[in-house]
Amino acid sequence: MSIDIVSFGEPLLEFSQLPGQDKPVSYLSGYGGDTSNFAVSAARQGAKVAMFAHLGSDVFGDQFVELWKAEGVYVDWVQRHPNAPTGIYFISHDEHGHHFTFYRKGSAASLVTPTDLPEDLIAGAKLLHTSAITHAISNGSCDTVFEAIDLAKKHKTLVSFDTNLRLKLWTLDRARAVIHETVRHVDFCMPSLDEAQQLTGLNDANEIADFYLCLGAKTVVLKMGPEGAMVATASERFTAKGHKVETVDATGAGDCFSGAFLSQIVAGKSLREALVYANCAAALTTTGYGAVVPIPTAAQVAAFQEKIS
Questions:
Q1: Domain residue limits at 63
Q2: Which residues of the chain fall short of a pLDDT of 50?
Q3: Residue 35: which CATH number?
């Protein structure tokens, strides 16, 4: 089986607060987890994506398997734990934006170990994607991320890494140490500006890009929210401005961006083409609620690009 991208991480069932509700509030169920969001985004753009994840043997785990199958994401390497649950989280909204409450301690995903890794899958893929959240959920998962990257490098599989920072999972000092060590070994470092500012102590986008390049990342793709995004390598640097849309929920926009960007890379597009494309996809996904439902398809991105051209 030919796979473009392997996405490794923790799926989480999502409960998002519906707007305009009197207390007690109502929640819309959906799907989350950064690497799962990423996988769906890349698959909707046409990439052949496989998910490597551990799920509980529960109804939420069943729903994720059904989701990925419906999206064309390969589930052959998804493992089901007999006792540990699938994690969940809640999104609440107020005048300050959206807020997350997680129930993931002891989740099936957190119990992964390096011996669980599917080396043949990683060896045969064009790219392995994972994130700092996958590092943070447990020591075993952290070790597994490093081992997965080692396997990818052994087999000349590209590696992308999202520095997603969740300080409810670990301290800033530990996050900084682990994330920066990981960046030394990746081809694509995918930080968000606000989180990179916390991790590096720098404020300027160009200085942040230089910092990660100096650590060893081959390409830095800096996501800057409404301001757009930047790509930086040792030899070139360029930005794409954000698009004005009717934003209602930015949940998962960074994951959508990363999936869209890397789907174009494995399809042979240039860094500049991938940046422009992903910038459009990320803007579109903020026009709906939840992390997965509003992720656009390739046709929707193409239509948006034509509209703004």
A1: 5-308
A2: none
A3: 3.40.1190.20
Active site residues: 255
Predicted local distance difference test score (pLDDT) of residue 89:
87
CA neighbor of 213 nearest in space, from 192, 195, 194, 187: 187
User: 172-187: per-residue pLDDT in tens?
Assistant: 999 999 999 999 999 9
pLDDT tens, position by position, 146-157: 999 999 999 999
Q: Are 278 and 264 in contact (CB under 8 A)?
A: yes
**Cα–Cα distance measured from residue 234 to residue 217, given in angstroms and rounded to the nearest whole number:** 10
- Of 302, 295, 250, 252, give the one whose Cα is nearest residue 276: 302
